[in-house]
Specification:
Layout: H1 2-23, H2 31-37, H3 42-53, H4 57-75, H5 80-86, H6 92-103, H7 107-110, E1 137-142, E2 145-155, H8 160-174, H9 177-182, E3 193-201, E4 206-214, E5 227-231, E6 234-242, H10 247-263, E7 267-268, E8 273-277, E9 288-296
Antiparallel strand pairs: 1-6, 2-4, 2-5, 3-4, 3-8, 6-9, 7-9, 8-9
Helix pairs in contact: 1-2, 2-3
Length: 302
């Protein structure tokens, strides 16, 4: 019963945040205020929003504003420049470009009879209670350490990272970067090879992704272009993913945010997220990898 109550409370808190956003769509969105409505940290709110809904908070606001602008254009004789300014666009040209990308027509064309538009409705968070599928995890506190590897700047908007990160792995294997990094793995390393997501712009979904190993003492054998990333001392939620990559990691990440966080007394801390890939056949249904997520207690629980 405790978990169910906590889950329902989380659902209500997130829906209150959505209601607050809806009330302020014609204003500058203060994301700290939205997170306050959800009774959680800003970073946790933005990460939960993105993973569960599939769109970033910033993208959601843009879609909702354009939907409301389209409705207003069709239902009134308001000037296009007034509608553009009301929904946060500095000029009619900027508004027209965004409108065309979203609807395939200009604001002027949208007013013509028979033009088909589509609406992006407000999100409502609903959590389904499920069972029968164990999620293996452990909580561990570790000191700071440093990783080194090849990096890619990407974004989760429109699923870009789902395409770019696997392609980045393929490229690293083809050009020898992965093999050179594997050769530098220390025999006693608990990390082996890691995928690192860091430097988040959580509002708009941009982040840096690295294929990395623990920083070697001898850096002369590192592939060209490698960079360091410091992993701060953290309390980690470590979740096992079983199955072929990349699907196993992607599906387990969704489960962590949809099932584990809403029923736990933890928040996602603002810090790098690690995917740990031990030696083995990553295409096997029995392959075991791990997701490391930095955790913090909610302010109310501290």
């Amino acid at each position: 019963m405790a978990e169910r109550g906590q889950q329902v409370d989380w659902q209500g808190r997130m829906n209150r945040a959505i209601a607050w956003i809806e009330q302020h769509l014609t204003e500058e969105i203060e994301w700290e205020d939205a997170a306050r409505e959800a009774s959680c940290s800003l970073f946790h709110f933005l990460r939960m929003f993105e993973v569960i809904t599939g769109v970033t908070a910033g993208e959601y606001v843009r879609l909702r504003r354009l939907s409301l602008a389209a409705m207003e254009l069709v239902a009134s004789d308001a000037r296009i420049i007034d509608v553009a300014m009301r929904y946060g666009y500095d000029s009619p040209d900027a508004f027209a470009r965004a409108f065309r990308r979203q609807f395939g027509c200009t604001p002027t064309e949208a007013r013509q009879p028979g033009v088909r538009l589509h609406s992006y409705s407000p999100i409502a968070f609903t959590i389904s209670l499920t069972g029968g599928h164990a999620m293996e995890y452990r909580i561990e506190t570790k000191p700071a350490f440093q990783l080194t590897g090849a990096s890619l700047r990407t974004t989760s908007e429109k699923g870009q990272n789902i395409r770019e990160v696997p392609a980045f792995w393929d490229q690293s294997m083809e050009n020898g970067t992965f093999a050179k990094l594997v050769a530098l793995v220390r025999p006693d390393s608990p990390i082996s090879v890691a995928g690192v997501s860091t430097e988040f712009d959580a509002e708009n979904g941009a982040f840096t992704y690295l294929i990395a190993v623990e920083s070697p003492d001898d850096r002369t054998a590192l592939p060209p272009g490698c960079r360091d990333v410091m992993i701060p001392a953290s309390t980690w939620g470590i979740f096992e993913a079983r199955g072929a990559l990349p699907n196993a990691i992607q599906e387990q990440m969704k489960r962590v945010f949809n099932e584990w966080f809403p029923t736990s007394n933890w928040e996602h801390a603002d810090g790098p997220v690690l995917e740990i890939y031990p030696p083995g056949d990553a295409t096997s249904a029995d392959y075991r990898s791990e997701i490391w997520i930095p955790l913090q207690k909610p302010a109310s629980a501290k």
